Structures are given as structure tokens and as C-alpha cells.
TrEMBL record:
Binding site residues for Zn(2+) 1: C174, C177, C227, C230
UniProt cofactor note: Binds 2 Zn(2+) ions per monomer.
GO molecular function terms noted in the UniProt entry: oxidoreductase activity
Protein name, entry field: Chaperone protein DnaJ
Family, similarity comment: Belongs to the DnaJ family.
One Pfam family it belongs to: DnaJ
Its job: Participates actively in the response to hyperosmotic and heat shock by preventing the aggregation of stress-denatured proteins and by disaggregating proteins, also in an autonomous, DnaK-independent fashion. Unfolded proteins bind initially to DnaJ; upon interaction with the DnaJ-bound protein, DnaK hydrolyzes its bound ATP, resulting in the formation of a stable complex. GrpE releases ADP from DnaK; ATP binding to DnaK triggers the release of the substrate protein, thus completing the reaction cycle.
Spans of repeat CXXCXGXG motif: 174-181, 191-198, 213-220, 227-234
Name of encoding gene: dnaJ
Residue ranges annotated for the J domain, each copy included: 10-75
Amino acid sequence: MSSKDWIEKDYYAALGVDKSASSDEIKKSYRKLARESHPDHNPGDPKAEERFKAVSEAYAVLGDEKKRREYDEMRSLFGSGAFRRNARGAGQPGGAPFDVSDLFGGGGGDTRFGGGGFTDLFSTIFSGGGGGGGAARPRGPARGRDVEAEVALDFTDAVRGVTLPLTLRAPGVCDTCHGNGAKPGTQPVACPVCHGAGVTTRNQGSFSFSEPCRNCQGVGTIVEEKCPECHGTGGVTKTRTLNVRFPAGVADGQRIRLAGRGEPGERGGPAGDLFVHVKVRPDELFGRTGDDLTLNVPITYAEAVFGTDLRVPTLDGTVTLRVPPGTPSGRVLRARGKGVVRKDGRAGDLLVTLDVVVPAKVSDEARAALETFAEQTPPAAREHLDARVRRFG
């Protein structure tokens, strides 16, 4: 993206958030919009592809605190009309609006103030006090972008830990030219316009300032014979497979960072990071609360009254729990050490909730037995409730 994009494009509107939105709100909105407009979900839809590119571009700026701060400062400055020029071309308040293209020359490429951010914009424009010829810095190594991926894990794999292959399709360095963009057997040559400096100096009214060379886009070199694989760009879209280790106890919604596994950097810069978002599929039997596993077990009325030895499953076997006589429905029994193993080697527990099942239909013999039981059983202790009921007659 160019510096002109930063002034003309409203990235907050692209993500549907306010300027005061938090980093989490921006990230949440981006992930939602990116899923909705991703080309894989909208095959053959050019409008969806454009929306996906727009929200990705917006998040690349607003998702980075430094870039977001520079973007806000620049938009505030130019949006306020702080730069104006009079009929003589001097940078003074008043007069016709300052033409943004006078600063950026309408040139393409990711120049962004010569690679130095918002602060370098002013050191470039006003170098030498308006009459000097200070030099802007050519573009140096740039860190690669971070990459995000989502992986769904089975419940058991998330609890125990697992290593899975993760296939990514993202830009990478061209293997044919090794990233320099030149045809094998040739090399990039110094730019004839900037003579390898990556910047040119020009006058604009009362100002004299340097800017990234438009001929070489600030790199300092040009490719005369382009690589047949990447057509001179130095990069191609690659499919790569990584073996990702998910630690034992990884939770649903957790994000795992793999340093240096994102997109490769430009001009020798470091690679970005890979962030893997974990989604855990629910299990048909077990639930999870922190490091504890949960399990609901139905028991009969007779088992609750007389007590029983209850054999229940765990993730790696079975365990026998003692149900004491007179156990009420909803009581929780604990099997220690049968939950999620923590990093320090200790494990959570298995929490078994007992659910006393009341049959919908009973036989005549069972009904007669229950009636006899009811006659011999003291009533439930609910005198405090009956007293309140009597108040209402």
C-alpha cells in the first residue's frame, strides 16, 4: 500500500469500527469480515475478493499499534487542512488545498514516507530548512507480515496434546531467482535514475525534498531480464506444510504463536509470525472446566437411596466411584488426577455429576411398592415453605 492510500482510505470504515475501537474489537471485526468475504467461501465472486483485500489491507495497518498511531496522526494532520499553499507555491496557511500528489508523486509501491514512517515524512520534506537537499532513506529490509490460521482439534487431542501438519498457502521467496527477481544467470543492476541510491531529490515550490525513486520504487536496483517464474517480483504464492505441536491442555479459542513462520521478509528482512487459532470440537461424553473434566452420569432412584459402586469412563480407562446411600440428584463426585495434565506434570480432576432418573412409567407392582414406601417414609422437610403458602390463604 502507498502513503497516498493512508490519507485517502478510511480503514476504520473498512473494518466497520469506530476510531476509538480497542485492539480486540478491531481484531474481532477483521476475523468476522475476513471469514465472510474469503475467496474460498465465495468462489468466482470478484466483489467478495475485493472486500477481502480491503479488510486485509485495513487490518495490516490498524492491527499494528505503531502503524495505527502513524495512520491516525497523518489522517488528523492532512484532514485538518494543516498544509496549504498560496499562489506562489509556499507552504503557508490559507490558499488552495495542498495536493497530496505533490508529496507522493502518485507513485506506486509500498513507499510509506521512504520507509521511515510518519516522522520521516517531515524530516524529508523540510530537510535543509526548505532550501536544502536532504536525502531520504532508501527502503531497507522489511519484516514479513504475520499470518493467521485456524485449526480444529478433537477433544481428546486437545487434552493430551498432538502434532499435526498444517498446510498454508501464502507468498514466499521464489526458488528460481532466490528472491532477487532476475533471470537465472543474471543479476539486478543499479537504477539509472537514482544510481543505486533508491531516492531522488526534486523541488516543489519553496520546498526541496527527497523521495523514493519512482523508477526502482526505492530499491536502488532494477531487473532487466525478469525471472520466468515470478516475473521479476522475487516472490510467488507457495503451498507449504508445517508440523505444529499443540501442547497438552490447549483450550478452545487459544492462540499459538510460531515465531518466524509467517510471510518471508522483503530485502533480507526477518519473516513474520504465524498465529494458529485453536477450535476444539466438543466430546460426546466429556466437558471441560479449566483443568478439570466433567461428566454427567444417570443413576436410578434405588441406587441413590441404597448407594452403589459406580464404574465410569475416563479419557484413558475407567475408575470406580462410591455413591453413598441417600445421595441427592446433582451431587458431584471427584476422581482426582483424571483431568487435564498441567505443564508442571500435575493433573486436574474428573468431576462426575449424578443425575437421579425418575421413570415416566412404572408397572403395577412397582407402583404398589412405591405407595408402600411412601407410607413408610417421613414427608419432606418443607415446613418453612408451607408457612409462607398459608399467608396467602
